[in-house]
Amino acid sequence: MTGTDSNDERRPAGELEAAVLAALWAADGPLTPGQVQAGLARDLARTTVTTILTRLFDKGVVDRARHGRGFAYHPVQDAPGLTARRMHTELDRDADRESVLARFVAQLTPDDEQLLRQLLEGGDS
To answer: What percent of the chain has pLDDT over 70?
Structure first.
């Protein structure tokens, strides 16, 4: 890898964060920025990976521990947990929770609606 990422500067931050998170989720334990960089399919500079990890840490999506002179990172939640967290964040942004939830439920597929009913009733899916 050459470590250049001039084309990646135009990519949405969410796309790069998702790639970094995927690498962390696939790992057996915490990873350093260099280890994350090596596990990515795209060619990003280590400084870019470090910046992404720092932003994810600041958002509370990953945690870190000292590893030599730097840090090793690990996700604080799995992918479904992160999605649920994002859903809560979006819900919290709107003052009219009832309308948001009503529209969300109205747009569910019949299968998803049935699953949601089972979950709300405390049954197994």
So the answer is: 87
pTM exceeds 0.85, yes or no: no
Q: Which residues contact 57 (CB under 8 A, 6 or more apart)?
A: 63, 64, 73
Residue 12, in any domain of the structure: yes
Q: Which domain holds residue 64?
A: 7-75
Provide the 3-class DSSP secondary structure of residue 117: helix
Task: Using the CB atoms, write b or e for 37-48: b if 16+ within 10 Å.
Answer: bebbeeebbbeb
Rounded (5°) CA angle 17-61-91: 95
Q: What is the CATH number of the domain that holds 34?
A: 1.10.10.10
CA distance 17 to 123: 34
- Please state, in angstroms and rounded to a whole number, the distance separating the CA atoms of residues 77 and 81: 5
